[in-house]
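Just wondering, does anyone understand these C-alpha cells?
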Amino acid sequence: MVLAATILASSLAFIDGSVVNVALPAIGANLGNSPADLQWVVNAYLLPLSALLLIGGGAGDRFGRRRLLIGGTVLFAVASSLCAFAPTLSWLLVGRAVQGVGAAILMPNSLAILGGSFAGPSKGRAIGTWASVGAAAGAIGPLLGGWLVDVIGWRAIFLINLPIAAGAIILAWRYIVETTDDAGTPLDWAGGCLATAGLGALTWGLTQFSSGGGGTVPLVAGVALLITFVALERSRGDRAMMPVTLFSSKSFVGLTLLTLLLYGALGGLLLLLPYVLIRADGYSAFAAGAALLPLPFVLGIASRAMGRLAATIGPRLPLTIGPMIVAGGFILATRIGDAGSYWTQVFPALLVISLGMAGAVAPLTTAVLSSVDARHTGTASGFNSAIARTGGMIATALLGAVLAARGAALVDAFRTTAWAAAGMAAAASAAAFLLVSAGTGMADD
C-alpha cells in the first residue's frame, strides 16, 4: 500500500509532464496563442518544479514526508481544476505554475518515503517498480490525453488528475507512517527564491532567443542570479538546500551531468514528436499519443529488471550503455517525416530509445539514493529530479523556432533537433563512463 500510494502521487507529476504535449495544437487553436506562448504552457509547469524540488525534499525531511506528500497532492488537484476551467492563457499558466509547486512538494517525498520504508533487496525492487511505473505513466499520458482531446477537448486532460489524487491521498493517509529527520535547520528560502528567479530569467531568455526575439538581457540576468545562488549555497554549507560539498564527488558530478543531458534530450523528443506527427503528418491527437506506446511497454517490462541488475553489478555499466543506445534511437528518429509507415520510421526509433532508457532509469535512481546518507535522501532525490526537469525545461525553451515552423520546414527542424539530442545522449554516456565509479555512487569515491 505504501508503494501504491507513492506511485499514484508521483504519477500525477509524470503524467502532467507529458500529457500536455499532444494537446498543444488544440490549446493554441482554442486560445489563439503563438508558438512562444505554447512553450510557456510547458515551462510554466517545469519552472517551479525544477526550482522548488530541492526545498520540497528538504521540507519533507524536516516537517514530515507523509504530511508533505498529502499536501502537495491536494495542491496539485486544486491547480488541475484551475487549469481545466481556465478562461484565458494567463489563467492556464497560473494553474500550470501551481501544479509545478505541488509536484515539487510531492515528488521528492514520494521517493524519500520509499527509501525509508524498504531495505535490502526489496528496496531496489521497490525503487525499480516506482521508476518503471512512473516512466510508463508519463509515456501513457499522451495516449490518454490524445483520446481526451479528440473526444472531449483539451480541458479534460486536467480533470483526470482528480481521481488519481484522491486515491493517493486516501492510501497515504491510511498506510504511510510519518517520518522526519529534523535537525533543526531552517529551510533555505533565499536559495529557493534565487533558483526560481535565475531559472525563470534563463528560460525567458532562451525562449526569446529561440523565437528570434533577442533575449540577451534575461539570459545575462539568469546567469548572474544562478551564480549568486551557487555563492549563497556555498556560504550556507550544510544548511544549504543544495550543499555544494556534494559536488566534491566525481560520481555525483557524473550523475548530475548524465541526468541533465539525457532527460533534456528525452524531454525535447516527447514535446516535438507528437507535435510533428499532428502538424506535419496529419495524425489525430489520439494517434499521436498512441505512437508513443513503445515507451511505456518497454520501460514497464525492463526497468525493474535493470534495477536489480544495477544493484548487483553497480550503475556504471548500465548508465554508460543505456544512453548510448538512446543516442542510436535519436539517429533513427532523423528518418521521421518522409510520409513513410509508422512501423518503418517512428516505431524503430522509439523502440531503441525505450530500450536505452530502460537501461538507465532505475540504475540512475538507485545510484543517486545510494550516494547520500539516509538523512539527506529527500534532498538528493529532489536535486536529481530538479536536474531532470531543468534539462527538459531548457530543451523546451530552445524549441521556439521548431514549433513556429510549418510543413517541410517543420520536418527539417525536427531532424536537426534529433541529431542534437543524439549528441546529448552520447555525452551523457561519456559522463557516466568517465565520472561514475564502479560501485553504487558517491560513497565509493
Notes: The chain has two domains: 2-177+241-444, 189-240. The two ends are 36 Å apart (CA to CA). Residues 440-445 have pLDDT under 50 and may be disordered.
